[in-house]
Amino acid sequence: MTTFFNTILLVTKLDPTDYVGFTFFIGAMAMMAASAFFFLSLNTFDKKWRTSILVSGLITFIAAVHYLYMRDYWAAFAESPTFFRYVDWILTVPLMCVEFYLILVIAGAKRSLMWRLIFLSVIMLVTGYIGEVIDRDNAWLWGLLSGAAYFVIVYDIWLGRARKLAEKAGGNVLKAHKALCWFVLVGWAIYPVGYMAGTPGWYDGIFGGLNLDVIYNIGDAINKIGFGLVIYNLALQATKSELNQAVK
Ligand SMILES: *C/C=C(C)/C=C/C=C(C)/C=C/C1=C(C)CCCC1(C)C
Question: pTM score, two decimals?
Answer without folding.
Answer: 0.92
